[in-house]
Design brief:
This protein has 347 residues and is an alpha+beta fold. Helix 2 packs antiparallel against helix 7, helix 2 (60-77) crosses helix 11 and helix 9 (246-254) crosses helix 12 (326-340). The two termini are 39 Å apart. It has helices at residues 6-16, 60-77, 90-98, 141-152, 161-168, 175-184, 201-214, 216-219, 246-254, 271-276, 313-322, 326-340, and strands spanning 20-23, 37-43, 46-54, 80-85, 102-105, 110-114, 117-121, 188-191, 194-197, 220-225, 242-245, 261-266, 280-281, 291-295. The strands form 3 sheets. The protein has a 7-stranded mixed sheet with strand order 1-2-3-4-5-6-7, with helices on both faces. A 5-stranded mixed sheet has the order 11-12-14-10-13. Strand 6 (110-114) and strand 7 form a beta hairpin.
């Protein structure tokens, strides 16, 4: 007997709340839109049509990227988007509600809101974990690095594999399998022996979510408390050795968001900076919000960024989403609009 899918379990949990739940056909003009399901949910006259995106094993670090994907699919579909997942903790549920992102999980937690419909349930625990995994492979660490290089330079997709490996900072032998996976999922198109990246916002957001889940934590080398934190723009950061990322990079790119964490990507933290700014190791809450993150670059020879002193906007976007902070997510949208939208269109 087949195990229930994540979508099956979430639908059953909604029905157990006394709601009518049924699958519907997508609007004719939206039939080609990628969606995990189209549902009508409600009670009596309060029926709401949803386009559904299913995501397993969400964490606070991946919630921002998932929310961005849901916003995109809602705008494209022209109807409310419903996030379906296996389990959401009460703080994650509250964060989603604050962002007006509707959800339903397999434990019976849900937030639904529409004409004649209002449901908010949190705190239920997942009792049965027999949920079949979603189809398709999750990105490997190598695959994440290769995809990042392609996102930074979509023209690289048709370059020799040796050039792709150099840009991604991975072994040449890993490239064929990664390209094959990208082609299988429709993110890489091959015609007349020419490769072309199917550069969409969906690919960008999928990468950002998987990056937050599997790779980002591995880049963190150390955290410090720094003197003169709020004068960071005057710090002697040599772009040949270190680059701003995350919140300070976003501030430089879109002139928005006062950084609460200063992210620096460098093979090693510049000794001059450690001495001049009297940096000491951060110890939890003692940092008082004046934390400097040292993160190690994971790429090879990716193209120059929008500014010589910041990492590529693709990484700025992903790091902002990974914070899970509403203002950072808002800023990520600004970075997308200004630097990434023309490369990765939403439709």
């Amino acid at each position: 007997m087949n195990e229930p899918t994540l979508l099956d379990r979430a639908m059953a949990a909604l029905a157990a709340l006394g709601l009518d739940v049924r699958a519907t056909e997508p609007p004719q003009k939206k039939a080609q839109l990628h969606a995990d399901a189209w549902l009508r949910i409600g009670k009596g006259k309060g029926q709401v049509d949803y386009v559904v995106e299913a995501k397993r094993t969400l964490t606070p670090e991946t919630l921002g990227a998932a929310t961005m994907q849901l916003r995109h699919i809602a705008n494209t579909a022209g109807r409310a988007a419903l996030l379906v997942t296996d389990y959401l903790t009460p703080p994650m549920a509250a964060s989603l509600r604050d962002q007006q992102q509707q959800f339903a999980d397999a434990a019976g937690n849900a937030y639904l809101e529409g004409p004649g419909l209002m449901v908010y349930v949190t705190g239920r625990k997942l009792q049965d974990t027999r949920i079949a995994p979603n189809a398709g492979k999750a990105y490997t660490l190598t695959g994440l690095k290769v995809t990042f290089a392609l996102l930074c330079d979509p023209e690289l997709a048709n370059a020799p594999q040796r050039a792709i490996a150099a840009a991604a900072g991975v072994a040449l032998g890993a490239i064929p399998a990664v390209l094959a996976d990208l082609q299988q999922t429709g993110h890489l198109l091959v015609l007349a022996k020419r490769r072309r990246l199917n550069a969409t916002k969906r690919l960008l957001d999928e990468w950002a979510l998987t990056y937050a889940r599997r790779l980002r934590a591995k880049t963190l080398q150390a955290t410090y408390v720094a003197h003169d934190f709020y004068a960071w723009k005057n710090w002697p950061l040599d772009p040949a050795q270190a680059l701003w990322g995350g919140e300070p990079a976003a501030n430089l790119l879109v002139n928005y968001l006062t950084p609460g964490v200063l992210t620096i990507y460098a093979d090693k933290i510049p000794p001059r900076l450690l001495i001049e700014k009297r940096m000491t190791p951060a110890r939890g809450a003692d940092a008082g919000g004046r934390v400097v993150e040292w993160r190690k670059p994971f790429w090879g020879n990716v193209p120059a960024a929008a500014r010589p002193d910041t990492v590529n906007p693709v990484l700025v976007y992903a790091d902002l989403l990974a914070t899970g902070d509403a203002r950072c997510i808002e800023t990520a949208q600004l970075v997308y609009d200004e630097y990434l939208a023309r490369l990765f269109p939403a439709a």
